Amino acid sequence: MSRRPRSDRDYYGLLGIEPGASEEEIRRAYRRQALRWHPDRNAGDPGAAERFKEISEAYAVLIDPVKRQAWDAARRPGGGGDFGVTRDDLFRDLFEDPRASAIFDELAAELQRMGLRVERRDFHETLFGGRAVVSGRIVIVGPFQPVTAFFRLARAVARGALRARVEAPEPAARPTGLLGRLVAAGSRRLLGLGTAPSPSAAATSAGDIEVPLRLAEDEAARGVRKRVVLRHGDSNEEILVTVPAGVTTGTRLRLRGKGRRAADGAAGDAYLVVEVTAGR
């Protein structure tokens, strides 16, 4: 990937549209380019994957009115050229925006009609280069914090804006009654989960693995990005994990499909077990 400032890149040119293009024109242009450059349709072209990332980066900027305005401003004479958003951050925001990321469902359906086995989640792996990037926030319900959890959940439901790809099984002593029902409903709505398993129910599959994730107190408090290495036989897989703020010792972050692979090809899950230590 080029290291030049992103304000120097011509996102309009990459998608083949004019600077005044509407949102629908941006969607149509990206859909056309994405179908052309998707790596699965260009198996013999080693540059297709990077081209797909470039047009996806352009789409991530132009489909977001705030980012588009900031990028346009940075490109103007005297604008300073300051558009310091990383590609990973652009892709992460893209996937967390339901309005913008809905196009991946459309692309998956179109590619399937072409005979390719592509699903929505495959776009995440393609754009992040095979790295699992976990982001978002989690709802933690523990035996000593049910009231705090209740108000966190109430605020989140009121906003209706919390989306997550981190799954945090609940510690024991799950609240009951009204609070329990609200927490269960909130988990389903906010995290896209059914009833979350307790820690004792986690990592019970033969393919599941547990990996310690050690954080300093300040890292746990503010949230942090960590690189975690998962060992698979003789090979290692490096995963970039965005840990949400406020995690505590014992929190378990689930990475779906990142455990051991069975003979039939099915993979278990990896559980990152948080351990908060004093100092650094």
Describe the structure.
The protein is an alpha+beta fold. It has two domains: 6-127, DnaJ domain (Helix Hairpins); 146-277, HSP40/DNAj peptide-binding domain (Sandwich). The protein has helices at 11-15, 23-37, 48-62, 65-75, 87-96, 98-101, 103-113, 120-127, 146-159, 177-191, 217-222, and strands at 209-216, 224-232, 235-243, 252-255, 270-277. Strand 2 (224-232) and strand 3 (235-243) form a beta hairpin. Helix 3 (48-62) crosses helix 5 (87-96) and helix 9 crosses helix 10. 27% of the residues are buried.
Q: What count of structural domains?
A: 2
CATH topology of the largest domain: HSP40/DNAj peptide-binding domain
Oligomeric state of the chains in view:
single chain
Coarse structural class: alpha+beta
Return the string of H and E elements.
HHHHHHHHHHEHEEEE
Mean pLDDT: 74
Classify the helix fraction into a percent range.
Answer: 40-55%
Distance between the termini: 33 Å
Number of strands: 5
Q: CATH homologous superfamily of the largest domain?
A: Urease metallochaperone UreE, N-terminal domain
Largest sheet: 3 strands, mixed
Major sheet: arrangement of strands = 1-5-4
Give the radius of gyration: 21 Å
Number of helices: 11
Please report which band the strand proportion falls in: under 5%, 5-15%, 15-25%, 25-35%, 35-45% or over 45%: 5-15%
Shape: globular
Write down the CATH class of the largest domain. Answer: Mainly Beta
